[in-house]
Amino acid sequence: MTTSTRPPSVQQRLLDTADAMFYAEGIRAVAIDRVIAESGVSKSTMYVHFRTKEDLVQAYLRRRTDNWRARVESEVARRAADAVEQALTVFDLFDEMFHAPGYRGCPFVNAAAEYPLHDGIRETVAYHRAWINGLFPKILGDRCDSELSASLVQLLDGAIAAAHLDGDLDSAQRARRTAERIL
């Protein structure tokens, strides 16, 4: 029996191309004509799926956060049964991301810096941040008040900034050790 794989849809090709280019080079640095050319779609086809470059940016960010959410939630559950260990596993997952080839910081921080005034992009970044801010209370349940949650998120944010801005690829493990003390 032969199985065939479907080629990616036009929208998927556009998103795959945009994702690679926006993350590696920066959103504003990549002209929409380059995304169109690299994805192999026509300009008119691109605009059927995304009315503007900013719509494509929003879709890129939304896909990034949805994929990251799914990965974090499944890996946290798979790797640890205890709630405290699950919370600490979040830092391990970020550590793995920092060490991945091509790591160039947080795509949401990068997008917020490049598009500080675009409502749609700000909403997509806020959607991601709402998930980050709700992650530890979801994992830890009643034992996680707003102060603890904010502290753990701040540790995570600091690790992200240190990994990107300072090249400190061990920052997530340092943040994990601090979180372990707090918890």
Automatic annotation (TrEMBL):
This protein's UniProt keywords: DNA-binding, Transcription, Transcription regulation
Pfam families according to UniProt: TetR_N (PF00440)
GO molecular function annotations of the record: DNA binding
Gene3D superfamilies reported for this sequence: Tetracycline Repressor, domain 2
Taxonomic classification: Bacteria, Bacillati, Actinomycetota, Actinomycetes, Mycobacteriales
Metal-binding keyword on record: no
Protein name: TetR/AcrR family transcriptional regulator
Domain HTH tetR-type: residue ranges: 8-68
DNA-binding region of this protein: 31-50
Native source organism of the sequence: Nocardia coubleae
